[in-house]
Amino acid sequence: MQRPAKGKTPRRPPLKKTSHTQKDPVGVYCRIRPLGATDEECCIEMISSTTIQLHAPDGIKANRNGEYKETQYSFKKVFGIQTSQIELFEDVAKPLVDDLIHCKNGLLFTYGVTGSGKTFTMTGSPGEGGLLPRSLDMLFNSIGPLQAKRFVFRTDDKNGMEIQGQVDALLERQKRESNQQSTVPKTPQKPDPEFADMISPEEACKCEGVDEDSCYSVFVSYIEIYNNYIYDLLEDTPIDPIRPKPPQSKILREDQNHNMYVSGCTEVEVKSTVEAFEVFWRGQKKRRIADTQLNRESSRSHSVFIVKLAQAPLDADGDHILQDKNQVTVSQLCLVDLAGSERTSRTKAEGSRLREAGNINQSLMTLRTCIEVLRENQMCGTNRMVPYRDSKVTHLFKNYFDGEGKVRMVVCVNPKADDYEETMLVMRFAELTQEVEVARPVDRPICNELSRRQEEQDGSVLNQLLDSLPALPACELVDPTDEQILPRLIEVLERRHRIRQMITEQYTRTANTLKSMLQEFDGHLMAKENFIHEQRGKLGEKDKIMFNQKNEMDRLEKKSKMLEYKIDILQKTTNIYEGDKRSLQQELESREQRLQRELSERKRMEARMQGMVSDTKHQWEKECERRVNAKQLEMQNKLWVKDEKLKQLKAIVSESNNSTTSEQQRPHHPRQAPEELPGEGPASRPREEISLAIARELLHPVTASLSPSRISPSPPRSVILSPSLHL
Length: 727
Hints:
This is Kinesin-like protein. The chain is an alpha+beta fold.
């Protein structure tokens, strides 16, 4: 068997355009908000109820050499700074609510730069309710007495609607009431001041022409598109202070009718305006807002509030809803508050704010691109693919641009001069959007099929009853005394009368039998109700036991989560310690290896140095020995010379001693002065002193040559002198 090739989801085949298809342009309205201060420069002037004019500020003219000119833009209607919320609602949103009640879809979104009043236009403030609360108020004022009981309608997981039986709906209502009694305090709660005074009773309105043979139910959901991810603002996530979980993003799916919807989105059934707005405000508090340089409470995401209206025909008696899923009609109204486009150079956004601004601008650019492609396809006859899938905003609402409902856009502008360039881009986009035409939705009336079938059945039974009676004879009565026609006519009438009496008796017997059966059924029903009452009592006891067990399970789960958290912390600490241990072991091993390398290197260096020292020592020993031998030889030569000189000196000394001795042996003549010998005088030294001086001079170079400073650093060696040196 050959596997099918994988690929992208096939696109929905385009509908064949017929000549009678009617189209309407996208309704674009403009609302001008008041200036924040009276001394601010204004760049927008309202020319008429449908036209505004932009004036370039003086600073921009000076910088751009006056190339900006005054430009005019036209809209379906322009609302000035004095326009009230009720006036805006009457022209913009009221027709969409009327279409919603008459089974038509609608899309309304606000568009503009940051700080232009989009959220105020959509939501409003206490005393000045916006488009959203007024739409809810008009819806419930119109269908209030025609609403079904809770849980009769139930949403499925595929963007459809089902009808439950009376018993199942009753059980769900009782279960919800028991849960509310166990969780909600008995003291009556005061309405939230945020929406208590949104709409005054004088401004309430309702739709005309509501089908009273149908039953209605309203479901609301609230999502936001943040960083091109879809989040459910009504999702009840359990609060875990130990390990808080981030919200899970949702995905878009396509139902069997090729309509886009958010899978797994919470849809809450509401029965009044206050309840619906409470649900809205619960989600609004979860919406992401932040403080920027241009707006103190700037929306950082696109919010979508979806109102679904389910309606189904009643039975012939008008007491119960027709249990036929095919007869259920669902229409929806999407109220979208788009985040404002902004320039990061003006908002000074950094970090996550910069990323948010980039995603906001990217999604708005994708919306602009889709509008441009739609316009080009319609005006030029091209068949370019519209890039709906490039952004979650355009992908979610692509069915509206394909003709599934009316599209309205409210362009909010701030007239201050600082927003001139951004406002000009918004005006160009609005002008482009007005040229796009959307196919007019087809009316989907609800017919009371059961009533028609019941009427046909009653008519057929009456005809059968008339056919069972004897037919009247074909005769013409002229004379009141006619004895032929009158007896036959009387006979036929008597027969019909007898048959009628028989039918009446049979009907009476059948009625009595049916009455007894009904009484028996009533008895059985009472017994069943008593049994159900007993079972409810037992069920209440079981619910209490289950509630206690659930509390115990919650306590144990919290304890288990706490222990898991501690185990997780210990595991992380152990992992950190093990990582530190491994890193320290690795560092220790690396240091030991480095130390071993250093030790081995040191040993090699020591061996090398020892070899070098031994070689150097051996060389120096040889050199010293050579020098000592040379010095000894030189000294021996010198000593030999000195010995010869000493011998000569000795000979001279001995000769002088002999001459001195002989001189002393001569007779002494005291009176006669001795004669002076030749070479001797009174100043001459004795010969012995001269000899000693000569000996010292001869020995001085020898002792100087043997001094420590003249000896090399080699080991000391003994010098052998001849005995002639010892005097």
